[in-house]
Amino acid sequence: MTRPENKIATLGTAITMAMVGLATAGELRPLDLPSEQKSYTQEQRPPDPTATVYDRFREKIGGLNDREKQEALEAFKKKLETAESEKDWKAAAHYQTLIKMLSTP
């Protein structure tokens, strides 16, 4: 048989562990029912399906600063060199177009 002191110590340890778990669980908030939830609108608009890759690229680079444009230009030049060395002419033409778009104001 176990001694009563051991049962009390075990019970005390279990209660302490449960309290620590509750204390670290975080804030308890009431549950919002689906009928009470507010709908949220998405701020980002989806890309225009009729826009080409280059139209979307032109729109995206419009928000870049000069340093970011220069970094992108250098990265595309490296990709162009790789495409040309691998004789991937379709990719090379694509990167040439991107470089031209980045280079023109």
Structural account:
By secondary structure, the chain is an all-alpha fold. 62% of the residues lie in helices and 0% in strands. The protein has a domain at 53-103. The protein has helices spanning 4-24, 53-61, 66-85, 89-103. The termini are far apart. The model has no long low-confidence stretch (mean pLDDT 78).
Structure characteristics:
elongated; 4 helices; 105 residues; mainly alpha
Structural class: mainly alpha
Number of strands: 0
Rg (C-alpha, Å): 31 Å
- Residue-averaged pLDDT: 78
Largest sheet: none
Order of helices and strands: HHHH
Q: Beta-strand percentage?
A: under 5%
Low-confidence stretches: none
In short:
With 105 residues, the chain is an all-alpha fold.
Q: What is the element layout, followed by pairings?
A:
Layout: H1 4-24, H2 53-61, H3 66-85, H4 89-103
Helix pairs in contact: 2-4, 3-4
